[in-house]
Design goal:
- With about 220 residues, the protein is an alpha/beta fold.
- The chain has a single domain, classed as Aldolase class I (TIM Barrel, Alpha-Beta Barrel), CATH 3.20.20.70.
- The protein is about 35% helix and about 20% strand.
- The longest helix has 15 residues.
- Bound molecules: D-xylitol-5-phosphate (DX5) and zinc ion.
- The site of D-xylitol-5-phosphate (DX5) has 22 residues, from strand 2, strand 8 and helix 7.
Length: about 220
């Protein structure tokens, strides 16, 4: 298997022992994945500024924010100031997506576009030209620990072609229900980055699970 970039989702971390889980990700992961939910775009609320700041202050590897919120453009500068290096905003939450992507880049962060499972990758032909990564949701966003939706595998294949034709540098990140059972298939179909919450933090040996997902074990 090729070397996968693994972004553990802190949504599944132990918040009573957050320092311990941050150190685990610092030592074994590639990127911190922070899920920001507003209870409007998704039917759940996650965590806010104090937790984000606690993570960025202790992180020694890059931190990305996955904004599952409406009007994400209002908060981009705040996230930059909190130490976030990459932001993904949802296609479904942005009327002026090109503007938001450019705002993220102008602030000096990497810009990603996230799509819900039902959103066709064919809609991304233009925005991939200016995006650093596309985050394909393989569950309906809002909760950790859900089951991978099988039809999203074909979306990754189709997106790979669109990216090769329009901006080969753009990465594909897959988020939701990723684990040791499907990582090899995801690597084959074209995923570059995988988010893993439950698979990492509910496993007996999270460090080993991250290494296996990376393809190092
Ligand atoms: C879901 C989030 C995911 C989630 C992944 O809305 O975007 O990042 O935390 O969790 P698992 O890996 O448990 O499906
Ligand atoms: Zn996420």
């Amino acid at each position: 298997m090729k070397r996968m970039i693994v972004a553990p989702s802190m949504l599944s971390a132990d918040f009573a022992n957050l320092g311990k889980d941050i150190d685990l990700v610092n030592q074994n992961g590639d990127i911190f994945h922070l899920d920001i939910m507003d209870g409007v775009f998704v039917p759940n609320i996650s965590y806010g500024t104090p937790v984000i700041k606690a993570i960025t202050a202790r992180a020694t590897i890059p931190v990305e924010a996955h904004l599952m919120i409406v009007e994400p453009q209002k908060f981009l500068k705040d996230y930059k100031e909190m130490g976030i290096g990459s932001i993904s905003v949802h296609y479904e939450a942005c009327t002026h997506l090109d503007r938001v992507v450019n705002q993220i880049k102008e602030l000096g962060m990497k810009a990603g576009v996230a799509i819900n499972p039902h959103t066709s990758v064919n809609l991304l032909e233009d925005i991939v030209k200016v995006s650093d990564y596309i985050l394909v949701m393989s569950v309906n966003p809002g909760f950790g620990g859900q089951k991978f939706i099988p039809y999203t595998t074909q979306k990754i294949r189709d997106l790979k072609k669109i990216i090769q034709d329009n901006n080969p540098k753009c990465l594909i990140e897959v988020d939701g229900g990723v684990g040791l059972n499907n990582i090899e298939e995801l690597a084959r179909t074209g995923a570059d980055v995988v988010v893993a919450g439950n698979a990492v933090f509910s496993s007996k040996n999270p460090a080993e699970t991250i290494k296996k997902l990376q393809g190092l074990l």
